[in-house]
Amino acid sequence: MSKRIVILTGGGDVPGLNAVIKQVTYRGCSMDYEVIGVRRGWEGLTHLNLEDADSKARYVLPLTPLNTRTIDRTGGTFLHSSRTNPAKMKSIPDHLKGVEFPKKEIVKEGQTIVTFDMTKYVLQNLEKLGADTVIAIGGDDTLSYARRLHDEGVKVIAIPKTMDNDVQHTEYCIGFSTAITRADSAIQRQRTTVGSHERIGVFRIFGRDAGYTALYTAYITNIRCAIPEFRFDIDKMIELLVKDKRNNPSNYSLVLLSEGAEWEGYETVHYGEADAYGHRKKMNVGDVFAQEVKKRAKEETIVSDLTYDLRSGDPDFTDKMVACTFGNMAMDALAEAKSGMMTGIVKGCFELVEIPDPKLGPRKIDLATMYNTERYRPNYANKRGLPIFLSRA
User: Fold this and answer.
1) Whole-angstrom Cα distance, residue 83 to residue 69?
2) Distance between CA 284 and CA 148 in Å, rounded?
3) pTM exceeding 0.90
């Protein structure tokens, strides 16, 4: 009897996910595994009712070389995604009403939030699916639950993906290169508009807790940036931008802000309901900063949000290569009966590492080597001997 692999993608989509799914499917089938795709990430295992044909059709998709043959030619995720956290469900699916699950109550901002841990049901579904190994593709949130399953005794191999590039134990996550490539292209195009109107261009980019997308985009576009790891002096930043503008023959300047960037005296404003991992939406720091520029320096701005477009469309070469390699590494690990491991890049080389402990939080920028806190720019010096992505896991 063939063994079974269950594969899923969670969190935000990025280019390259389909290349992983295809590689796992092709290698798995060649190794006499059945490959079962679970749709909509961890939701597929919390909401799946295997006694209901409609539910099974919605959440379970057997994968073959035939139905995955062309999926690597596009971005997104063939298996779809969600931000479900089975350990912190806010509601129980209808078909499980009346079933008791461990409950937790948290008082936050004057409100009592009740969550349910549905892990026992996830384990039941994996057993009914005949899963020998789970391959989970996601960022630190998705992989935190992959770590939980490993701790529960499930064989798990993890693959890191996130535009933020902030998963611990690896120097690179699928989706990062394409995001930087797209951000570079967008900024270079918008120079014409910002320059035509002789303004200060303010770009906001993903990066809730870590500034990799902002820092690396600023590195290749040679503009100033603000990152979550360093609270800057707003008057000094505005003074530098005005000076850049005056020294530019085209009379404009540019700055890039991570969504989680803050300056002295300003704290990020959150709004809306928290997602399954406790994250609320952030007020657009670019808009707030632009208002301060106008108030303090009497300069006009153009604000541009570099967000979802960066994760859309086809992967670039780097992301496709890393995705293909990570997929094959996961199958190598599976063949060696490993569990609790994650594919990664360490010191510029492909490696298997331990799935990060969620308590570690996101990987952060090393300010001492990577960011010039006086000039609010990337540090361009002393790169000799560093791995290709300029930081160490």
Assistant:
1) 27
2) 33
3) yes
**DSSP tally for the chain: helices H, then strands E:** 11, 17
List Cα–Cα distances, 174 to 18, 213, 214, 311, 317, in angstroms. 11, 13, 17, 11, 11
Cβ atoms of 370 and 215 within 8 Å: the answer is yes
**13, 72, 141, 164: which one is catalytic?**
164
Give the Cα separation of 254 and 144 in Å (integer).
Answer: 36
The model's pLDDT over 143-188, given as tens digits with 9 standing for 90+, comes to: 999 999 999 999 999 999 999 999 999 999 999 999 999 999 999 9
- Decide the pairing of beta strands 270-271 and 281-282: antiparallel
* 114 lies in the same domain as 104: yes
Amino acid at 269: V
Told to judge if 332 belongs to the known catalytic residues of this protein, a careful annotator would answer: no
On whether both 13 and 155 belong to a single domain, the answer is: yes
**86, 40 contact by CB (below 8 A):** no
Give the domain range for residue 263.
176-312+366-378
With beta carbons less than 8 A apart as the criterion, state whether 187 and 225 touch.
no
Q: Is residue 286 part of a domain?
A: yes
Buried residues in 281-298 as b, exposed as e (16+ CB within 10 A) = ebebbbebbbebbeeebe
Answer yes or no: do 269 and 288 share one domain.
yes
Residues 261-310 have pLDDT tens digits of: 999 998 776 555 665 555 556 668 999 999 999 999 999 999 999 988 89
Q: 257: closest CA among 298, 294, 220, 215?
A: 215
Task: Provide the number of structural domains found in the chain.
Answer: 2
